[in-house]
From TrEMBL:
Name recorded for this polypeptide: DUF427 domain-containing protein
Span of domain DUF427: 1-87
Taxonomic placement: Bacteria, Pseudomonadati, Bacteroidota, Flavobacteriia, Flavobacteriales
Domain of life from the UniProt record: Bacteria
Length: 93
């Protein structure tokens, strides 16, 4: 699977985990040069507290377009150490 934004592959892995129709990529599969930490956090009743990354590719920014769970609940242990995308990021095979 590939995550693409602004015509650039920002993550690539054959080992994504799908939860609620989102592909969670292993953290080591993201291209860190495009990711900037964000102060945004949200909570999911069963997964836990999410943290976000903003994307920056060729001078364009996409705030809070990727999320991950630094600490996961027991129910969500399958996505620990993984990153998912939204806000216009295409995930394709």
């Amino acid at each position: 699977m590939k995550a693409i934004w602004n015509d650039t592959v920002i993550a690539e892995s054959n080992e994504t985990v799908v939860v609620e129709n989102n592909h969670y990529f292993p953290a080591e599969s993201i291209k860190k040069e495009y990711f900037k930490s964000s102060d945004t956090h949200t909570s999911c009743p069963w997964k836990g507290k999410a943290s976000y990354y903003s994307l920056e590719v060729d001078g364009k920014q996409n705030p809070d377009a990727a999320w991950y769970y630094p600490e996961v609940s027991e129910l969500a242990k399958g996505i620990k150490g993984r990153v998912a995308f939204w806000k216009g990021v295409s995930v394709v095979e």
